[in-house]
């Protein structure tokens, strides 16, 4: 077990690396040529169009104003200054609520840490358990003196820990309830204050039953005319444009290449660039690159035209789903919340997601397929969680010296070199695992897509849930009980129900130092790395150099990125779990957690204000999940404490803690009943109020025109747009990414591209990531 | 272990006792003076007013027509003749669907038995496991030769059992799905064909928030006027009439006594009956009984008047709940299915239950109280299930010789007598347990009432669910692993997850003979006892002698009873469980189960046609529960087979069976999604169709008048009625139960009485039972 000094060293290393990141950031962000990397949000908002300093060419790239270097830390107060209402205005409710997750961490753990240090640490310190143990030659460090390990077996001092467990639970529940209440009211206020939006009037109808005599559109129209006679307004069918989307993505890629060669030619007019036609340009006939791509683009444009006509005309091109719009919000709210026919698998209605949040590919899934897919994904996730180590081990074995020797003998001379050998042996297995973990959120996202959710926020929430489970099993439990998840599963199956918490509980105090190190590496240095934005930094400058011709191109080369809820939130949850589990056991861990929450809050507030640009707004629909996971962390911590106590000769405390657990579950159910519906349902009263206000303000509103084309597959909007300019393109060879039109158009294109890849199974998402923000242009 | 001969003897005993019951029934039911005991349904329907035979006085009491004795078994074909649609018409959908539970038992188990006997029995018989075991001195009987015990450890013959497990599961699921589909369509057709009923237009609103300036009624009116402007029609507030109901019940009791003494006086005019005023009439001043009760009744009538005025006038007499009626079924369906305000704990709407099904006492519970109550009841039920043996053992110890000696020394001389001693030692402990088990459904019903469900059918369903769990733990598991449930729980907690199915699995084949005996005692003789109706028989004749003066009184003294869903369905489920568990293990059990289902079907069909009179109609709302419990029996059987197989050296079959279990769970989820909503929700399309039809047929219908007083607390209806005749009562001293008015009045009074007792905690329900049917008079 590590000593205080060991931890001090580790802390120093991590604090220094974090400081280096921060220093680098402080310097880089002051350079005008990085302005678009570190302040893209302001550009997208149109509030900034050029780096702040102006003057000579050099000073446009490097900042020579030394006064600004002196104030290099002033981003910190700046990040904290913006008040929350303004933040919601600036970045949306999702972002503001996301920040509150960090804040809730502080709210929970600061009082818990104070209590814990003022009561439990003295209790632990003045005990003599370790001295007694030392007599039996059990080694321990001075950290253990602060932890529960120092209390004698069966001592009455454990009641202090038990009472504290109650206090911590009560405090956590109190904070959680306050927060749930606050966020529910924030969400309702946000929805209420929003201007008129198509999704307020629209319901997504799925599984429209086929009718021999009518088209889908007619069928939908007749059905709602009859069953919602006073409220039905119009409907838009959903075209199956997946193939079309593929073609458009292909065209975009070709245009990228065209632009690249064009730029190359512009810079060096003497030689027209040439390209080989064979496999990824490595061999084959050489042709003039620009002519080649012009021809290819023309070809594919034609294909797109044909496909588009086919989709629009072909009966099979229409999916059995539609967006049905109503005259009033009340009508839409009613339709979304009710069952239409006696067959609950037909005419399924739900509140339509925002148009840019719709995941179009999944709209056509029939009910049975959904059940089967969901089931298959549950099974797949089970195997992924418990057996992921098997393929990893296989790849690692391939990536070992022996493996390479066998599978690629021609590499023998290279790998025999000592340096390369040590690299392979030392790093490759680790890198394989690291790569898998990097791609894991993307893999889970693909699984969610396969499951058939129709809105991006639902996809993200499902992926986040699975990522949380994976972390819980493989990071948390996997670190406590060393061994693969599968071995754990096996040993759990063979252990009795009351033995499992003991096995884990007894290991908890021992692993405290490991987790302290983990928090510092992942939570401190990792978060500091986030602010540096290394990947977008590199990619922006590469694009800037190779593709950018106009100011507009530069705009599009920016990658503001966004909060990847499904990848980040489950990792925050790990800190809640660690904090709650260790609060009564090893209070020394708490300051590290508190520092993480405070630091991350600061960093992410800065990023949200200056960098991130959310693709969609779900109005904090994720909160019930966040709340639920903190509660489950609380319950896990209680069960593990039961286990720990029973190994400490305090088995009689079990009923005392079981009552606490049951009360916590009761609290969860109460919160669920009380607040959750605010995140799922649109209440009629609210809808009626908005309807009435609107009717009074704009009695002659033509709603139908407003709603007519709100839910057109984004590809058609793009298409129209691309068609308009397809000649223009060949004439003046404008760039491919075009004007920043202040609409929502194309904001979903990157998702479309991803999902077409999800049919395959390459983890394409992270690779697309750099392009994510490029097309976002609503502000 | 019992031999075939043992079982033969047990079967003979039970068949003989069943035959004796049937014979007694056949004779008793032919006696005219029993006509009202065995054919009350026909009297209530008004299709029979006098025993069939007429003639001399004696032949009105005893049947001397010997021809009818020869045909004494002809009730059997008669019970089977009535076709199902007519049965639904005659007894309601609930009863018809209840019969289908027995039918589904036959549908599932007849093919399974055939398959099992033609494949598994030969496989088992031709094995030699027991011969080998005999060499090691393990005793066994010839029944075991037919069971899985006879197959050698690790033999490949077990694959036959595994494949059969698949076949049984697939068949069971197929039957279940067909049945679910059929019953869902029956329910919808039934609801659709029903004539206009108040509950189709009405929504129950609970948790109306208080308003300082408005009464509840005004508040409700304004809220729905605003939020359902096109559909709102009227509302009826709910009065807190619990005290009033108590007074009315008290009055009724007094009148019963009055009637009793009056009749006594009429029969013996010489002496006016006198009564002592002290403790239960044992001592105190003697007064004239009739005068005394007349005065008492007058007093209480006055009290009732005062209380009634108070309830109607007092603001606090109005509960924060209301029945809100709409102009159309569509409007009601919308309101019931939607959330009204952003606070999901206020203005809670749900489809109103039938007026006679409302459980009035629970209408006023606030949301938090509901959560707490539900939670408390969960905990209480947990303790009831696992620790019920503790108070029972305590009472048993009191009821033992030693206990009586200590607590009541003055009884010493009596209990010293040998006969009484042996009775106490032999019977009393058993009787205490039996009494507890008899009252258990009533106790569970009281728990449901405490939980705050507002409709009788919901109360019954919850009680049934709990009773099922109790049976599962204490009867099924308790019989397999001998020992109290608490000991089981303890040993389960200390066993590993994969050890538990083994422990149970290995005990299953051994317990087959025990369960065969159980089926014969509980299922054969018990069901035959049902048709005899011993309790109603005795009570009817007692009442007939002591209270009945007019033909009307006789009508009211009848106790048709009804299917006690919460008490009987969970017991049927035990047979499903036994059948499915033993089908692959000990096929010899199946014929016994099949006989039970067939016999019970016959008996209950007869009872439903001739006797039972349901208090309310829930249109088979209980089916999802029945379905779910059969599925869970299936899953239990699979898990136990896994356990059994792994003790039989076939642990490698575990994945094979786990897949089956997972598929079964998947099937359950599919069925839930596909069919369950038909039992919960009123789809808009159906509502619209009925609305449209009605509008076309009766364009000038005055719906408001129809709905105005549909949901008045039954006590007020009674009250008005009683007031009308309160003078009349004192004049001509008519009996208290009065005319059979063809309305729904007072149909819920007995429940009202119960629930007021549920505040106490005496298991009052079974005692009220005999009076249950007395007040039902709608036909």
Automatic annotation (TrEMBL), chains A, B:
One of its GO terms (molecular function) is calcium-activated cation channel activity. Coiled coil: none annotated. Keywords: Calcium, Ion channel, Ion transport, Membrane, Transmembrane, Transmembrane helix, Transport. GO terms for cellular component: plasma membrane. Pfam families: PHM7_cyt, RSN1_7TM, RSN1_TM. Residues 750-762 have a biased composition (Low complexity). Residues 200-362 form the CSC1/OSCA1-like cytosolic domain. Residues 373-645 form the CSC1/OSCA1-like 7TM region domain. It is found in: Membrane. Signal peptide: none annotated. This is Uncharacterized protein. It comes from the Eukaryota. The lineage of its organism: Eukaryota, Viridiplantae, Streptophyta, Embryophyta, Tracheophyta. The chain crosses the membrane at residues 6-28, 97-120, 158-177, 375-399, 419-444, 465-486, 506-527, 574-604. Residues 726-737 have a biased composition (Acidic residues). Belongs to the CSC1 (TC 1.A.17) family. Residues 726-779 are annotated as: Disordered. Residues 7-179 form the CSC1/OSCA1-like N-terminal transmembrane domain. It is a multi-pass membrane protein.
